[in-house]
Amino acid sequence: MSFNWDRALQKANDLEDDNLSAALQLADRDGRWEALLRPPEVPPGRSETELPLIEGSQRHVMCPDLYRATLSGSINRVDQLLRLTVTEEITRTNDEYHDVEIQFEDIFESNGSHKQLGARVHGYDSCTLQEVTAEENTVLHIAAEHGHLELAKHLIRNDNTLLTSQNSRQETPLHLAARAGNHRIISLIVLLAEESGVGTYEVLMKRSTNGDTVLHEAARHGHEDVVQVLMTVAPSLSAEVNNASMSPLYLAVFRKSVGVVKALLESSHSSAVGPNQQNALHVSVLVSREITSVLIDWKVELAYGKDASGSTPLHYAASNGDITIAGTTVTLSAYGAIFSPQRQDKLKNWKDEAPKWIDRTSTNLIIVSVLIATIAFSAAFNVPGSYNDDGVANLRKKAQYNIFVVLDTIALSASVSATMLLVVAKAVNKWGSWTSFSYSLA
Q1: Residues of 23-42 as b/e, b for ≥16 C-beta within 10 angstroms?
Q2: Is the pTM of this model over 0.90?
Q3: Does the keyword Ribonucleoprotein belong to this entry (predicted)?
Q4: CA distance linking residue 163 with residue 14, whole number of Å
Q5: Pick from 33-47, 230-244, 386-400: least confident
Q6: C-alpha torsion 52→54→58→62, nearest 10
Q7: Which end of the chain is more exposed for a tag (fewer CB within 10 A), N or C?
Q8: Helical spans, DSSP H, in 84-148
Q9: What angle do CA 222, 228, 233 make, to 5 degrees?
Q10: How far is CA 338 from CA 64, 289, 350, 390, in A?
Q11: Residue 132 near residue 56, CB atoms below 8 Å
Q12: Helical H segments across 159-247, by residue range
């Protein structure tokens, strides 16, 4: 096994998911699954024309009894509706449905012909696994959405084509399970898809009419457990974008789900793409300080990404009025920043001009500070009210005089200190000059 297999198995063990571990063991024989574990360098695109055709016109409407039985998760009742024969019904003396009468129902089609739908038995409908609801959901869609683990297993083992069945929105049972947060169902479907020969690749790579993968659904609804399972078996899904140019990471940030974001960031190849050329950081600065810090720590270059209007995440933070997030964005990106090529010229100019500006400003400030020191020193000997014959200030007992003496002393001390620091700033290296210059201004 490759490193990817070993890592996936370790994650499955950490999640304590037996179905997931068993599926990975079986998948060692399926070469296509390696593509799911290996993140692509360039996320593959997909157009709407590549989506499967809707097969609603080829399906029958699900009988109400089968729908109710599936919704309740009753395996026995579903079996009765799908496999009941007249002979079996007659022998069920303890069953409440012992009144047997076969009827045939016809519908009148628009072309004037009649089409026989099937036999109806009082108390039970003669149903099939291929019947669908108004939204074209199969029985497996319903079981997966409502978390009926044993029923889902029973249905798949009777008809494994249900694994890839799609409803009117081209969603598979896996999509509905991911949306509902049923991670055990996800693991089960992955295992049975591999066991049955349908293939996990075919099941996991299905997209809805919106271009959403199962990982999009899990991220959109903030289901961390489902994301953990999917990132174990198919981390490449984190690089996919839907028809709206939204990656799973972008959706997770929009949902403000810190756990899902961290799970997706376990793959360095996860896409942060959003609509209108945004990235996930454009959204995070508006919704969560914690997620903003996590994203910048993961990829600091996101801070320099521009949307279609040329705005960076910092612009978004500033326009939202959140000073804390704006400060976080600036600080974190500064300490880990990798400047893009178009910024190098500005950085070089700043580095060249800053020392020159410090030198010019220091010269002017030295003159000012020396003048202040001279005046303050002179004032100390030429006090208001002059001196008496004993050489003592005449106004020494006045409060105003004492205040003058204190302020004059402060002015003298500060101006002398500033002069010394400014002189040092002109003499030392550029980093020392910044420090000395800053202290002198203070």
Answers
A1: bbebbeebeebbebbebeee
A2: no
A3: no
A4: 26
A5: 33-47
A6: 120
A7: C
A8: 86-91, 139-145
A9: 130
A10: 61, 21, 16, 71
A11: yes
A12: 173-180, 183-196, 200-204, 214-220, 224-233
